[in-house]
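Handout, section B. The chain below has 262 residues.
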Amino acid sequence: MHLHAAQLPPAGSFRSALLRFSLARSGVDRIVVLSAYWKEVLAELAPEISDKLVVLANPIDASIADSVYARRLLSAWEQEAERVVTFLGRVGFRKGIDTVLDAARVLRRDNLRKIKIRAFGDGALNTIRSQIRSEELSNVLDLPGWVSAESKLEVLTSSYCNILPSRNEGLPLSVLEALGCGIPCIVSDIPAHIAAFGGLPGVFFHKTGDHLSLLENLASLASISSEEYGKLCIETRMGASERFGQETIVNKTRELISGFNL
C-alpha cells in the first residue's frame, strides 16, 4: 500500500477512526509513506502497523532536471537583475497563497532586491487575481495560472528561487523538481518539509504563515553575489540528487521488494 496524503483527518474524528481501522485490517505486508515524518504520524495513529511502515520518497524527474540544470548553468545572474521567484502549486490556503499575498503587499512598498513572484497552478485564480488588481500588486506578483509540462521548462530555467509556504504537505513534487534543477527553495517549517529537506544545501525554512520570515529569507538569498549563487545552485543540485535521485530511489525500491523473498 502507498499512502500519498498531505494531511490526515482530525484526531478523534470518525474519519480518523475509520482510517486507523482500515490500516489495521488492510492485510498488506508493507505500507509505503513519503517521509520519516509521515511514518511517525501513522505509527502514532495505528501502532499495530508500525512494523509495516517503509519510507520511500518520490524520485526527481531527470528528464526535466537535467535539461533545466544545463541551461541554468549558462545563465548570468546579474546583481541588478529582477529576481523571479516561482510558486508552483494549487493556489489556495493550504499551499500558503495568503502568505504570498502578504509578502507581495510588503514588496509593493519596499522592493530593493527587485523581486517578482510568479505563482503557477490551478485553484482560486479569479479571487487572487482580483486582489492583485484591486491592491495594485501586479508589479511584484503575477498569477499566470496552470503551466503545461513543456512550459514548465521555461519557468524553471528563469527561476531565481522557488517558494512553497504550505501548511500541510506530503512530499511536494514542485520542490523536488526545483532542487533537481539546482534552484534554491524557501519552504515553510512544517514537520513534513523538515523531515524531507532538512540538511540539504539550497533549502531554507521560514516560519509557517509568517510572510516577514519568508521575505527575510528572500532578501538574504537575493543579496549574495552571482558567484556565490552559482556555487549554491551546484550544491543544491548535488544534494538533491544524492537524496532523491532516480538511482537512489530505485535501489531503495529494490531493497523493499527483496524483503518479500519472491
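Note. The longest strand covers residues 83-88. Compare this with the example in section A.
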